[in-house]
Amino acid sequence: MIITVTPNPSLDRTVTLGSPLTRGAVQRVDSVTVEPGGKGINVARALTLAAVATEAVLPAADDDPLLASLRSLGVPFIGVPIAEPVRTNLAITETDGTTTKLNERGALVDDHALQALTRCVLGKAQEASWVVLSGSLPPGIPVDWYAQVVSLLAPLDCRVAVDSSEAPLAALAGAFDVAAPDLIKPNAEELADLAGVPAADLEDAAAQGDMSPVVAAARELVARGVGTVLATLGAAGAVLVDSFGAWFATPPPIVPRSTVGAGDASLAGYLRAAVAGAEAPQRLQMAVAYGSAAAALPGSALPSPAQLDLDAVRTHPMKVSL
Predict the structure, then answer these.
(1) Fewer CB atoms inside 10 Å of the end CB: C or N, the chain?
(2) Nearest 5°: CA angle at 38, between 102 and 291?
(3) What is the pLDDT at residue 110?
């Protein structure tokens, strides 16, 4: 069982344009989709499509449209009641796949709901192989909540993955001595922030096929206690680093349609391979296959196993001494 936790879920409204976005202009919309969103929910959706046992934990009122949407998709969930409606996020996707996202802050999670959410996560973790903590934190949840939960989960048998950014990720990193997760999934910018290096250095090197700066940054996090770092690098692929080695993988050529949820799909792919007992290179291969398949789909759609091009993903070991 993989439990995903999405403290700041959303209904994701994706608008697809037939021409480049122009500020201040009136433009025609080609299509509009509305789907349940939030990083952990996206992971649970992708795992559900692959028939992997999963359950999404999230704060939402019983009558919130988000929960009705999850039911319609057949995604198992537990909703912790809150008073306010779940936020709606807007993504604007252009013809080349460039995506502009406008995210609301999120619904307030008061102290009572926060305690219930924490209890729910700890309770479900008793039966889980993985607990995935994903996304931003809404009003009412302290910035170090992920660090608190990772520390509370440490005595349990489950593994813990975290995919977040900005202040919650920084707070987690500040507590790596007591709250280092088994897996983190940063992008290049987030990895650079954690390692204290310019993001442009990692992005430029990766674009030129040089993954060594990314590996070096990820190795610093492993040295600080993180079990595994899965660094997703967009069209350049991804890098996986743990205490045994480092690998990078390049994606198949695709026509990008939307990057919404591509990173979440990558995490789902990694977890799907992990629970199947795959070794590190195969976990990375599955992660990249999922991420590239998601980027080729419209809106925030997530790929099914039939939409993967696993054999087209090239995985390579890095010759480094860890």
Answers:
(1) C
(2) 95
(3) 97
